[in-house]
Write a structure and sequence with these properties.
This protein has 23 helices and six strands. With 549 residues, it is mainly alpha-helical.
């Protein structure tokens, strides 16, 4: 009873901390809200666009159902602005609830596999302070929502192992199948974690049946259910040919090509655990000899390198200790780690969400290893390290984009009108990274601006960046919106903090961007080096855009 009270108290503290971080400490990050909700708006008004996406199969559909549940059929009469503002807030709350449920379910899972109070606290802290988890629980992206189903599936599957009676076993196994299938349907890469999930009970229990038959049967059933979900999605999306199916699949890559590689993996994995800022770009500038912002080897030998090394030193130490002290858990963990790492090497290794499923594996391993340190002094040191990590994560998220962008908000918010477009350099620009096409200005709950980035280096869109830009500008003028161009794009030399790395993509150089935007005609603009110019809706500008299109 005392132990249960401690666990309950710890969970309450974690949930209160989570709520405080979400509502008080860190400003809301909208993530991909604009893209998701714009697709919902297009679907409601019979405009071209698919409601079901390969990578996030049911996410847009769920958003639409939730909004219908809250606003009823009047949702169809909403303007795009109303859908963006109301929908982003609604889905943000849904993801907050999903994050809280992740903590609750994970706490129960740790308890079922035999972890003691201190181990459960450390495991919960590992999940809570993992900055991709906190980051995505504040957005309209489906990663944390899908993680909730993944954890529910793991909990149900573990419960099936511990429950006597064949009927209860089948009941929990059925729930596990449904939850695993839904997790994959909301974010497809979670399929790579299923082998770990299926064999998770074997890491902690002497299973009733020594053969692996039931794991393979459950996996096969999951595959069938997932296939059924995708078959129905293909049918209702009116996809009737192989080229259309391939196109539907490639759309989920968001214009990214290989965009991975071992180097990106090294920095992406570490950055997901300890925020490294622009250290990856610093090293990239050194490796490819950036002519605009040259970097020496001495510049690379800084505190960020120590943080990078510390992540791998800790990970390899934990892996070695686990291998020699908890061999079964280590083998099961590899079933989840290896597929996710290999996939990251191939695709988008720099994205923090690529490693979101790994934190569950890492927390289980770390919690198990904590039990090897039974002394009070060791527990105190571990607690202090975890607390310091948590403070660093919260500090990182609270200032990550907001403080960097605040001056630029102020510079343009009184000049821009409803629906105006901001043109920024690329997706690493704080305005683009935090809002992804949806910017709600501070102090004005009704005004929203669209933020477009000119180029994404390494993507399939890089070669046609001029045509893509021209289409966006023409569309904005066609809807009578003003276009504001970042002054950064007119500079002869990019500053290091722009996030531009010369030579990263041989399809475009900074001189191409500078010459293009310097040739435009502009009206008045906002003050400051990081302000915006108002692009003139003039015949010379339109003639150039027409020539590109």
């Amino acid at each position: 009873m005392v132990c249960m009270a401690k666990i309950f108290s710890s969970l309450v503290v974690m949930l209160l901390l989570y709520g405080g971080i979400y509502y008080v400490v860190i400003p809301r990050e909208w993530g991909d809200s604009g893209a998701y909700l714009a697709d919902v708006f297009a679907y409601l008004h019979s405009v071209d666009g698919r409601l079901l996406e390969f990578g996030h199969l049911f996410w847009r559909f769920l958003i639409m159902l939730l909004m219908f549940g809250v606003y009823g059929t009047e949702l169809r009469q909403f303007s795009e602005n109303e859908i963006l503002v109301n929908g982003a807030n609604l889905i943000g709350e849904v993801n907050f609830i999903a994050g809280a449920l992740c903590l609750l379910v994970f706490s129960r899972l740790l308890q079922l596999v035999g972890y003691k109070t201190f181990q459960i606290c450390i495991g919960l802290a590992a999940l809570l302070f993992f900055w991709p988890f906190l980051n995505h629980s504040r957005t309209a992206s489906p990663y944390v929502f899908a993680l909730m189903f993944l954890l529910l599936g793991e909990l149900s599957w573990v419960k099936s192992e511990l429950t006597p009676g064949i009927k209860l076993f089948y009941a929990y196994a059925t729930i596990a199948v449904l939850c695993f299938s839904l997790a994959v349907s909301f974010w497809f890469p979670y399929i790579l974690t299923l082998p770990f999930c299926l064999f998770l009970p074997r890491a902690f229990f002497d299973t009733k049946n020594k053969s692996v038959k039931k794991e393979f049967i459950l996996g096969a059933i999951c595959a069938l259910v997932i296939t059924l979900f995708y078959f129905l999605a293909i049918y209702f999306s009116q996809i009737r040919s192989w080229p259309a199916l391939v196109s539907w699949f490639t759309e989920s890559q968001h214009g990214k090509l290989f965009h991975g590689g071992f180097t990106k993996l090294i920095f992406g994995y570490a950055n997901a655990h300890i925020y490294l800022g622009d250290y990856g770009k610093l090293v990239k500038r050194y490796l490819i000899s950036d002519s605009y912002n040259p970097v020496t080897l001495a510049d690379c030998l800084n505190f960020s390198l120590i943080r990078l090394i510390s992540v791998y030193l800790f990970s390899f130490t934990a892996a070695i200790v686990c291998w020699y002290r908890e061999r079964r858990l280590a083998l099961v963990a590899l079933l989840g780690v290896i597929p996710n790492i290999l996939f990251a090497i191939y695709f988008d290794a720099g994205s923090a969400e690529r490693y979101l499923a790994l934190i569950i594996i890492e927390a289980l391993v770390f919690g198990k290893l904590v039990s090897l340190s039974s002394t009070g002094k060791a527990k105190l040191i571990i607690s202090l390290v975890v607390a310091a990590y948590g403070v660093a994560t919260i500090f990182t998220l609270s200032g990550k984009y907001w403080l960097e962008s605040q001056d630029r908000f102020i510079a343009v918010q009184f000049l821009a009108k409803e629906g105006d477009v901001l043109i920024v350099l690329n997706y690493t620009d704080p305005l683009s990274s935090i809002y992804k096409g949806f910017l709600q200005m501070p102090g004005d709950s009704t005004k929203n601006l669209k933020v477009y980035s000119v180029i994404r280096s390494g993507s399939s869109e890089a070669a046609s960046w001029k045509r893509s830009l021209a289409n966006k500008l023409q569309a904005a003028w066609g809807e009578n919106h003003n276009i504001w161009v970042s002054r950064r794009l007119l500079n002869l030399k990019p500053e290091a903090y722009y996030g531009w790395v010369e030579g990263e993509d041989d399809q475009i150089s900074w001189v191409h961007l500078s010459r293009l935007f310097s040739a435009f005609e502009y009206d008045s603009g906002s003050d400051g080096a990081d302000g915006f110019y108002l692009l003139k809706n003039s015949d010379p500008n339109r003639r150039w855009l027409n020539s590109v299109r």
